[in-house]
# Entry
Amino acid sequence: MPIFQAPGSFGSLNRFMRHLLLSTRVYGLLLGSSFLLLSCQKSSTEDLMLTDKPAVVQTWRFPCGPACDAAAWVLVMDNGNAYEAANLPADFQRDEQPVLVQFEKTGHKNALQPGTGLEMVSILKIRPR
# Structure
């Protein structure tokens, strides 16, 4: 034991400081790794906001003038609502094809004279049902 150290004074303080420093490092590492793990998780908010809706792809014909008619690809939903799908991928351009679709309403109708009269949608995701 050193000459200037009273028994039980600085030795126990030294051990306490080492213990405090070690536990602070351990808790710091634990806290830091927790933040790292939480920041690496994939966000599931997209899945919660957009759900696949069942629909059937159909071709609707409409007059475009005295001697012509036109066609549009339409998504008919299970609840009976129908929407014109201008950006329907070529792989899904088959009449009466059942699909699961995610879309965004545009709030607009086709600019062709009478057209289908349906609201147009922009397809975000589509897959066969």
